[in-house]
Amino acid sequence: MNFWEYLVNRHQQLLTDAYQHASAVFQCMVVATLLGVLIAVAGYRSEWAGNLATTTTATILTVPALALIGLLIPIVGLGVPPTVVALTLYGLLPVVRNAIVGLRGVDPTLVDAATGIGMSRPARLLRIELPLAWPPILTGIRVSTQMLMGIAAIAAYASGPGLGNVIFRGLASLGSANALNQVLAGTLGIIVLALLFDAAYVLIGRLTIPRGIRARDR
User: Fold this and answer.
1) Buried b (16+ CB within 10 A) or exposed e, 4-41
2) What is the pLDDT of residues 66-88, one digit of tens each?
3) What residues contact 22, with CB distance under 8 A and at least 6 apart?
4) Burial letters 166-195, b for 16+ CB under 10 A, else e
5) What angle separates helix 130-154 from helix 179-208, to the nearest 10 degrees?
6) How far is residue 37's CA from residue 97's CA, in Å, rounded to a whole number?
7) What is the pTM of this model?
């Protein structure tokens, strides 16, 4: 059968795999964002702490995805657990780095003014520093999401969820009637999901970042 016929006949399974793929990336990005911002908040005031956080998360990113997932299998087993751990770890670097840059870029006079009117450090962080650092943080989230979309496909090696299963099945049966259709369907599905997520981040940016800050960043 041709590619269009394959999509029509397998659309239900492909939609299920696409949903699982998107869900895994989204949930891991939520965890990676929370952890990344917390790490940045803990280290952005100190040069060595910020460098340590960036270097550590960058080192994690240099580990091949297949190797990391393989190392995680004896520890957490097959399926969802190694997928979640691996994707969360890989998603940290852009968030940590951009959060540190954003927090360090906040105008000190604004922080001093907030201190002068009696705001506590947590209040300054939540009401002034993090909102002003949000644009670079959002950029880091966008970059991480695009990376994880591709890396999540490798999770099929550990029986993880998502479109990687379609790609792996196609690669394992090269030469059969639908092998190329499977690989192409899985690959295009990941590309479409990545574009949809990026469009959602653009919309979030327009809704949450004041127009003046967007104009300044350009």
Assistant:
1) eebbeebeeebeebbebbbebbeebbeebbebbbebbb
2) 899 989 999 988 888 999 999 99
3) 193, 197
4) bbbbbeeeeeeebebbbbbbbbebbeebbe
5) 180
6) 9
7) 0.90
